[in-house]
Design brief:
Length: 186
């Protein structure tokens, strides 16, 4: 790569130090650690509630999420090839949006509800709202961004939704307090 840059600079009559530097690949900033921890805790609580017999009670939250929530590479490949999603992936959507709603409740003090659905072909929506105020709406086309196969991507998506909802609440705070459901503080 450096040799190519040197040759390019030589053709233009520049030294390698004067040659334009190619832009580096942009990396996304890491999600807020506090919100990440809250999302993992909420996701773990939801998965524990559905583990009726406590089979996975001895696992750490990360292990439990990996075992009960994240899709396998086979599910991801199957979804990519024929645009259909498995039942495991379809169950991933509402659980994640419930966890996001829980974090939003903690942060805002308002009652937040979630509604999420995805059909067999991978089309659907995720919705987070409080009363008549819609905070976050995500369209799912061919299942994208689902299925999640890594905890880091799941947390990044969840925290981005939390921040979007909090930004909206902050912008329309007066309207949200009047139009939302019961305030959790009183």
């Amino acid at each position: 790569m450096e040799r190519m840059a040197d040759e390019f600079a030589g053709v233009n009559g520049q030294t390698p130090e004067q040659a334009p530097v190619s832009p580096k690949r942009r990396t996304k900033p890491l999600p807020d650690p506090e919100k990440s921890e809250q999302l993992i805790r909420r996701l773990n609580d939801l998965l524990s509630a559905s583990d009726y017999f406590g089979r996975y009670a001895s696992l750490t939250p990360e292990e439990k999420i990996s075992k009960l929530f994240l899709a396998s590479a086979d599910d991801k490949a199957k979804s990519d090839i024929n645009c259909t999603v498995s039942d495991e992936v379809r169950s991933q959507v509402p659980v994640l949006f419930q966890a996001i709603a829980g974090v939003l409740e903690e942060k805002s003090g308002l009652m937040i509800q979630s509604s999420a659905e995805i059909n067999v072909e991978g089309f659907g929506r995720g919705l987070l709202y409080s009363g008549r105020i819609i905070l976050v709406i995500k369209s799912l086309r061919a299942g994208f961004p689902f299925p999640f196969t890594s905890l880091a991507k799941t947390v990044a998506y969840g925290v981005a939704c939390v921040e979007e909802g909090l930004t909206f609440l902050d912008k329309y705070k007066d309207l949200a307090e009047v139009q939302s459901l019961l305030n959790l503080e009183g």
